[in-house]
Design brief:
Largest sheet of chain A: none
CATH class of the domain at 76-227 in chain A: Mainly Alpha
Number of helices of chain A: 10
Shape of chain A: elongated
Strand content of chain A: under 5%
Order of helices and strands of chain A: HHHHHHHHHH
Distance between the termini of chain A: 59 Å
Number of strands of chain A: 0
Radius of gyration of chain A: 19 Å
CATH superfamily of the domain at 76-227 in chain A: Tetracycline Repressor, domain 2
CATH architecture of the domain at 76-227 in chain A: Orthogonal Bundle
Oligomer: homodimer
Helix content of chain A: over 70%
CATH topology of the domain at 76-227 in chain A: Tetracycline Repressor, domain 2
Largest interface: A-B, 66 and 66 residues
Structural class of chain A: mainly alpha
Chain lengths: 230, 230
DNA sequence: GTCTATAAGATGATAGAC
DNA sequence: GTCTATCATCTTATAGAC
């Protein structure tokens, strides 16, 4: 009610039947997403989320239980959407191409749902992708969370690329994917590093610049590693 | 004295004239490095470091001032060593090749100091590289720390690659480096993700498998993005 | 559902003895 | 240099009123 009425930040899913004073739940998730993506799990306090979302800490525990469960809810909320859409785009691509599957085409189908939302999905999606980038690099538990969340889609991509490169060994495909995963998640993290490195010439939020380059780079890399020619 | 006598963890630099009861300072740095690399800055407490290093929390503040300064000391300790050596290997490579500089050769000179230590440098170096990977993906302050610490060496690499690809634009070189940076730091993070993804076929600590593949992948990527042919 | 109040413990940091 | 003791604050989480 009186709280959160100024909340105009990214919402996910349907536009809310009563959009003015929407869910406290969604407001909490949005704020938590933003904080976790910048400071990591341990760098955020429940109080901080509560204050920013203009609710009480007790309400966060009422909705989510523990801080850990809040984090998991944040991480899963958009993962399900992205995973479903990635499966669709890859299925549609394969169905449309038949035997003409290419590495570039497979990568485009895999990346499109992410890059489209990175460009046009609003701050909520951008925060989410930065969070995925951070989790992906977290030694202690990040790899395990990534595995649990995204592996089915990754295997679908690898199968698709294997159709374009039938001679490729499994090892080479997995290593190549690992390199792609690093490139992508660093790009998603939007640390501003490339901005500073290039002294303002490049911008980490420039998806138009990113998309054709990451596809070209990764496709050539896959071919070189898996088939010995790019 | 009575503390830390069982400390056999990674030391850096010379083997210590009195190796039995070496520095408390070094012991603190080693432990902090290991913890920070796994859990990030906020996921580690000064107490935890003190207990594991078998010293008192007051001693950590005596040596380093604040927790933040301890972190900075950890991050800089090995950065200086790596930066100096990378400059040497790249200078030596360029001097030896004259006009025959290749992308693969430049990348090899850039990566060798890191990959050699990742393979043979012991747990201290492995922890350190995992920490760099984590910092690299940290939205809030990671990009800034990476810039401050590693930019001169990165510019040296980009200049070297530009000699091999004279037609390349600055934008394409920076974007390509960004992809390489992501691939490398994810590999350094050793999250075990590729182990699980490949169901045990690949191992994230297998530097023998990593090195030729990351060079081949990145070189082909640079060529495709910067020159339009791989 | 949402709040107030508060328990129960952990945290970074310092003063001061030895 | 290294320790003990301690402060002031912050933390997650819950009980219970409305």
């Amino acid at each position: 009610m009186k709280a959160r009425q100024a909340m105009t930040t990214a919402k996910v899913g349907r536009p809310a039947k009563d959009s003015r004073e929407k869910d406290a739940r969604a407001a909490i998730l949005d704020v938590a997403e933003e904080r976790f993506s910048r400071h990591g799990f341990h760098g955020v306090t429940v109080r901080e989320v509560a204050t920013t979302a203009q609710v009480n800490t007790a309400l966060i525990h009422y909705y989510f239980g523990s801080k850990k469960e809040l984090f998991d809810a944040v991480f899963m909320r958009r993962a399900e959407i992205i995973n479903a859409e990635r499966m669709e785009t890859m299925n549609a691509y394969e169905a449309g191409e038949g035997d003409g599957v290419t590495v570039e085409g497979a990568l485009e189908a895999f990346l499109r749902p992410v890059l489209t939302r990175l460009a046009d999905g609003g701050p909520g999606w951008r925060n989410y992708f930065a969070l995925v980038g951070l989790v992906n690099a977290t030694t202690a538990w990040g790899g395990e969370v990534m595995t649990r969340t995204f592996d089915p889609v990754i295997h679908r991509l690898i199968d698709l690329i294997a159709r374009a490169l039938p001679e490729a060994s499994k090892e080479d495909l997995y290593w190549s994917y690992n390199f792609l995963s690093g490139s992508l998640t660093l790009s998603l993290a939007e640390t501003g590093r490339i901005d500073r490195l290039s002294d303002g010439l490049c911008h980490s939020d420039d998806v138009e610049a990113l998309k054709p380059r990451i596809i070209a780079y990764a496709a050539a890399g896959f071919r070189q590693v898996c088939v010995g020619k790019a």
